[in-house]
Design goal:
The complex is a heterotrimer of chains A (about 300), B (about 325) and C (about 575). Chain A is about 80% helix and about 0% strand. Chain A is built from 14 helices and no strands. In chain A, helix 5 runs antiparallel to helix 10, helix 7 (about 145-160) crosses helix 8 (about 175-200) and helix 10 (about 215-245) packs antiparallel against helix 13. Chain B has about 325 residues and is mainly α. The longest helix of chain B is centred in the middle third of the chain and has 37 residues, at about 120-160. In chain C, about 30% of the residues lie in helices and about 20% in strands. In chain C, a hairpin with a 5-residue loop joins strand 5 and strand 6 (about 125-130). The chains are: A mainly alpha (about 300), B mainly alpha (about 325), C alpha+beta (about 575). Chains A and C meet through helix 2, helix 3, helix 5, helix 7 and helix 10 of A and helix 1, helix 2, helix 8 and helix 14 of C.
């Protein structure tokens, strides 16, 4: 077990280096100087050159890359050109917001997806099935920004139940969590439904039916437990992907999280910040997959035996 | 990731779960005497009906009666596709014709969804926008599927170094936050429709590659493949003529289920200003343009949003329906 | 559901663990990583999530009675390092001189930190006398050496962008390139005593006093600023000025809080403080205003909402307006054929229905411009002939130039442009299409666009320039000062004689003669040579809650205003 985990971590290292390298190459083949973007209308060539030199942008790309990698080894992600702050502290500041949003959204998606999946499976191919799957698929099919705007309009503006945007109070997270959570509820519902359908056909469930146990009893005590195993492992991956997937939700709801940092970094061609956010979220995704693997082998006896 | 809402095939029915699918269905296949549930009987009956159906049309009718929602979705998609194809005939106005004196006029008989901020007819723009949304739904999905299939076959069949390299590349691609990756690609290549194809293909091939690889791995050991190999059939022929056809059901399901993701990705990129560019329009861009007027003239933003929703939902329902039908167990009967 | 709890804990632990590793070089790593896990626990249990650790400065200020408004999202508030964000430079710092807007709309330069000044007869030496007893918010005294430090720093600080303010001072180039360490060593600056000093220019510059009023010329405290290093303009506790407000807290990307400087030398401000929110979304800003979460709404930052407020019975009496002293224009690159032909350029000027564009995009809230110097600027020429909207004449001009069948033209748009600017180019493409110019809109990302523009290779783009200081030089020299400036903005204007005159006009000491020269040049450059298509200038509108009094739009119509005399009742 420990060996397997170590092995997985070791495999992740070349992946991470690949990610850093690809993003670095992509960002450096684009023309345009971040300092030029920063100064916009007030730009003057001598000032652009001076500030570029200050950030070492006048050096050859390979030299910049080596310097970046060297700093990275020391855990230093550099200084944002545009925001004048250390990327480490910017990410550290933004992460709690994104984490709160991701967890709240994950909870919403489970609250919608798991019951919808269970009910659909029990009533397979009936109107109930279609209704519940339809409801969870509705979230997957809606453009997040559009849903966000309409929710803001109804619940924040018309009804004034929750704040329009921001991250000041826990109420601020309600709408973004619903929008984001609903959007990933469909995957959870599908997985729950298909697993439950499969488990319901296993022999021991049929035996339970045959013994005359009540429907609820069978579902809750026997089927549910086994059907949810893959769903639970999926959750670790889901939380990680929500952490990186909140880009648009954070933009529309003005939540100062990682996603907004990344979007700003892209538009400003702020390489250290973009690299920092991408590396950070990549680590999260890799870690999420790792946790999923570990959970899976811990929870599922069939895998553990092997 | 969830903003892109890419269906993750490796977790949803590929990867680990798929191994279980195969083993459990293989078990059933080996043991025909196992007690059959009502559902199994129903499925077998369905398969038998399908086998007996003589024409494709009959098969289609059987499938439609099996899942009416999926059938309705197929009709909706077809209607949207026809409108897009015959846009010049269907659209009441030139979608780029500006009329600055009649801006943001709400719904009326002349303009059923009103006019936008430059006085252009929203309904006509939606009809033309459907072309972009459909093409972006279909083409990058197809490209990423093709790329993922080829790489997955190579990786699964050849193994060794090729497998290692391709799977590490897949790991890298999957490890990226996908919307961010698409944005970076768009910035590298510049905004524009062709680049959206490339960005979305680049972002989403890895899932397919993994599914096809794991399927190839198990098919590789099948007797008929062994037989072909011993007869000296070339490995490329085995891959593409013997293994690939067996992957088709999965590919069809993946294809249908990945389309909504592509449509929504495009709308996300357009919303962020790096997708479709004016004067070309797509539904995503229309929502983005219209969002400023959500409260003064809501129909401009709501109508294209609803259109995206309907199209994506239809593909999702259709995908679920197709998946139910193409269940691996069913195919073995 | 026990497993969910386990999973959440795992994620939280993972998140904080990663942060602790990743934030090792950040000063606040320990506090932040601990807040990461505690915050997630709160989110899971649904209790209040007070974000801590990311706020620089005092995180616990009661802002209930503060004036609340939405504003730009600054990256740095160091007055010398920003050319687009001025709220903190304007309200937490003071300049030697300020601009005062009179009731009739005219403006004049008035004393501020400098209570008086004299100019030598040759127009080269300015002697200033500082007010006595001016203190920074940390209690330090304002002295002549702070002024010297301020100008030296403008020229030598690597990230300074406003160095042009000090570049007219004698010996500035030597300080800039490191040959001298201080303006005092090269005769540009003479300290007379603690409160008196003189500045000598390398050549007479009639706009020098006006330049001293810009936010970039804010006077900094030498000791604090030097000690703060690159944290000046980032960390509120070391960003110290003499102004009516004290920069107290900055929650990055979210909120800036300014508290009243009760001991301000020019009098305590009328409100307890400013609670400045960062809200990127226009609809959100409007909703926050309607819910009372904002006291002032800048309709320039929320153009899509303007019609709603102007048309609303509830809000139409709450609108406050002022001119925005800035010109919108479309550039024409004379190096790209056939725009090298003056008749073609004139045809392009005459074929745009600028009033319709103004009506469609800005509800007609503005005035057409026909030159370079917009309404509200010193030197604005109301007698400049109007460029007609005449499609037939435009077609004739094109035919005369040999382009009766039109030509292909590329219009350049940045994907970062606001939707309104992108709409503008779509309208322009459609109008030019009427006279046979077949336009394609080329959208590129901002970095590429700026790069191409500065290389002088951008075809046609639309942009605007608003006044930094109230002098024609701010407009004329920027675009048409010399061939390099004209190329830098992809105009590639060819009339070298006119450009030489623009540069020479800087040294004309008689104000009337100087204005007359600028107005003559403006006519030559825009009306005779058709160097660009002038569009319009806009009105700057705000919706201001009835609880607010004393709010005035700044003289140049910037989005950043002075709040010294603005009060709010709760």
């Amino acid at each position: 077990m420990a060996k397997k985990i170590i092995n997985r971590v070791l495999v992740s290292i070349p992946v991470l280096i690949g990610v850093i390298f690809i993003i670095y190459v992509m960002l450096n083949i684009i023309p345009g100087n971040p300092i030029e973007v920063m100064m916009a209308e007030h730009a003057r060539q001598d000032v652009i050159d001076r500030i570029s030199a200050y950030y070492g942008l006048d050096k050859p790309v390979w030299e910049q890359f080596l310097i970046y990698m060297k700093n990275l080894l020391h855990g230093d992600l550099g200084v944002s050109y545009k925001l004048n702050r250390s990327v480490n502290s910017l990410i550290a500041d933004a992460f709690p917001y994104t984490l709160k949003l991701a967890i709240a959204a994950a909870i919403v998606s489970w609250l919608i997806g798991i019951p919808a999946g269970i009910l659909s499976a029990i009533h397979e191919n009936t109107i109930v099935d279609r209704l519940f799957m339809g409801f969870s698929l509705l979230g997957v099919s809606m453009p997040v920004f559009w849903a966000a705007l309409i929710f803001q309009y109804i619940f924040a503006y018309r009804l004034a139940w929750v704040p329009v945007s921001g991250a000041d109070t826990w109420q601020s997270y309600i709408l973004p969590a619903i929008v984001l959570g609903w959007s990933s509820a469909g995957t959870i519902a599908r997985l729950t439904r298909s697993n439950l359908l499969e488990v319901l056909e296993e022999d021991y469930i049929r035996t339970a039916w045959a013994k005359g146990l009540s429907q609820a009893g069978v579902i809750l005590h026997h089927a549910f437990k086994n059907a949810l195993l893959p769903v639970i492992t999926m959750m670790a991956i889901q939380v990680a992907s929500l952490l990186s997937g909140a880009v648009i939700t954070e933009t529309v709801f003005a939540i100062p999280g990682i996603g907004r940092l990344a979007v700003d970094a892209i538009t400003n061609r702020d390489m250290p910040l973009l690299q920092g956010t991408v590396i950070f979220t990549t680590i999260l995704i890799i870690a999420g997959n790792l946790i999923a693997d570990i959970l899976y082998s811990v929870i599922d006896p069939r895998i553990r035996e092997k | 990731m969830s903003d892109l809402k890419h269906f993750r095939p490796d977790t949803a029915f590929g990867g680990k779960n798929e191994k279980r699918d195969l083993t459990s269905s293989a078990k059933k296949a080996q043991d025909p005497d196992a007690k059959l549930s009502a559902k199994d009987k129903k499925r077998i009956q369905l398969a038998a009906d399908l086998g007996e159906a003589e024409t494709g049309w009959d098969k289609f009718k059987i499938l439609c009666s099996e899942n009416k929602l999926a059938a309705a979705s197929a009709v909706i998609i077809l209607v949207i596709a026809l409108m897009a194809i015959f846009a010049p005939v269907v659209a009441p106005y030139d979608p780029t014709k500006q009329d600055l004196l009649h801006r943001l006029e709400g719904m009326s008989a002349a303009h059923i969804f009103g006019t936008d901020q430059l006085g252009r007819d929203v309904f006509s723009r939606m009809i033309y926008g459907a072309r972009v949304s459909l093409v972006i739904g279909l083409l990058p999905t197809f490209l990423s599927l093709a790329l993922g299939t080829v790489l997955g076959l190579i990786s699964g069949y050849l193994g060794k170094a090729a497998d290692f390299v391709i799977m590490r590349l897949a790991d890298i691609t999957m490890a990226f936050p996908s919307l961010l990756l698409a944005m970076v690609v768009m910035y590298t290549l510049g905004a524009g429709i062709v680049n959206i194809f490339l960005a979305l293909t680049f972002v989403s091939w890895a899932g397919t590659a993994r599914v096809i690889r794991s399927q190839t791995l198990s098919l590789r050991e099948m007797e008929y493949i062994e037989a072909a190999r011993s007869m000296g059939v070339s490995k490329w022929r085995i891959m593409f003529q013997h293994i690939l056809p067996n992957c088709l059901p999965n590919l069809i399901v993946l294809f249908t289920l990945n389309i909504p993701g592509s449509i929504l990705s495009e709308s996300s990129l357009s919303f962020l200003g790096i997708g479709a560019q004016p004067p070309m329009t797509s539904w995503g861009l229309m929502v983005s343009d219209g969002k400023q007027y959500l409260f003064t003239d809501p129909v401009v933003a709501i109508a294209p949003g609803v259109a995206i929703l309907i199209l994506a939902l239809a593909f999702n329902f259709l995908g679920d329906g197709v998946r139910d039908v193409l269940d691996p167990y069913l195919n073995k009967q | 559901m026990k497993k969910h709890a386990v999973l959440i804990l795992l994620c939280a632990a993972l998140g904080s663990g990663l942060l602790a590793g990743c934030g090792s070089s950040a000063g606040s790593s320990t506090s932040t990583s601990s807040s990461g896990s505690s915050a997630s626990a709160e989110a899971a249990t649904g209790t209040s999530t007070e974000a801590a650790g990311e706020t620089l400065g005092d995180a616990n200020i009661d802002t209930t009675t503060f004036l609340k408004f939405a504003d730009d999202n600054p990256n740095i508030v160091d007055p010398q390092c920003t050319s687009d964000y001025y709220t903190i430079p304007m309200n937490c710092f003071d300049r030697l001189l300020e601009v005062k807007v009179n009731d009739d709309g005219t403006s004049e330069i008035v004393p501020s930190l400098a209570k008086s000044y004299e100019v030598s007869d040759d127009g080269l030496t300015y002697t200033f006398h500082l007010n006595e007893g001016v203190k920074y918010s940390n209690g330090a005294d304002l002295t002549s050496s702070d002024v010297l430090y301020t100008f030296n720093r403008l020229l030598t600080y690597p990230k300074a962008v406003n160095n042009d303010i000090a570049e007219g001072i004698k010996g500035a180039d030597q300080v800039e390139n490191g040959e001298a360490s201080s303006l005092e060593d090269v005769g540009g600056f003479t300290t007379i005593d603690d409160l008196d000093f003189s500045i000598t220019l390398s050549q007479p510059n009639a706009s020098f006093l006006a330049q001293l009023t810009v936010p970039g010329a804010s006077i900094l405290d030498e000791d604090t600023t030097e000690a703060a290093g690159d944290q000046f303009g980032i960390d509120p506790s070391v960003t110290i000025g003499t102004g009516p407000f004290i920069f107290s807290s900055w929650t990055f990307n979210s909120e800036l809080i300014l508290t009243a400087n009760k001991n301000c030398w020019s009098g305590a401000p009328a409100c307890d403080g400013l609670d400045i929110k960062v809200v990127p979304d226009e609809e959100t800003q409007r909703m926050m205003f309607e819910n009372g979460e904002l006291d002032i709404l800048d309709l320039d930052n929320t153009p899509s909402q303007a019609d709603y407020f102007l048309g609303s019975d509830k809000y139409k009496d709450e609108i406050i307006e002022g001119p925005r002293v800035g010109i919108y224009y479309i550039s024409l690159n004379e190096d790209i054929e056939p725009m090298g032909n003056v008749e073609v350029r004139k045809a392009m000027q005459e074929s745009l229905d600028r009033q319709s564009i103004l009506d469609a995009l800005y509800g007609g809230r503005g005035q057409l411009e026909n030159g370079i110097l917009p309404h509200g600027l010193v030197g604005y020429n109301e007698n400049l002939p109007e460029i007609p909207y005449d499609v037939e004449d435009a077609k004739k001009l094109l035919a005369d130039a040999g382009y009766a069948n039109g030509f292909d033209l590329e219009l350049d748009v940045s994907s970062d442009d606001s939707q309104t600017s992108q709409d503008l180019m779509q309208i322009v493409a459609s109008m030019w299409g009427e006279i046979g110019i077949n336009c394609t809109i080329n959208t590129m990302d901002d970095a590429t666009l700026q790069d191409t523009k500065h290389a002088g290779e951008l075809s046609c783009y639309s942009s605007s320039w608003s006044a930094d200081y109230n002098d024609p030089d701010n407009f004329m020299y920027t675009f048409f000062g010399d061939a390099a400036n004209a190329k830098f903005r992809s105009l590639n204007y060819k009339n070298t004689d006119a450009m030489a005159r623009v540069t020479a006009a800087r040294a004309i000491t008689d104000p009337d003669k100087r204005i007359a020269e600028y107005q003559d040049l403006e006519k030559t450059i825009i009306q005779d040579d058709a160097a660009w298509v002038p569009l319009f200038s806009k009105e700057h509108l705000y919706v201001v809650s009835p609880a607010v009094s004393g709010f005035k739009v700044s003289w140049n119509g910037w989005s950043n205003n002075y709040y010294h005399n603005v009060s709010v009742t709760r």
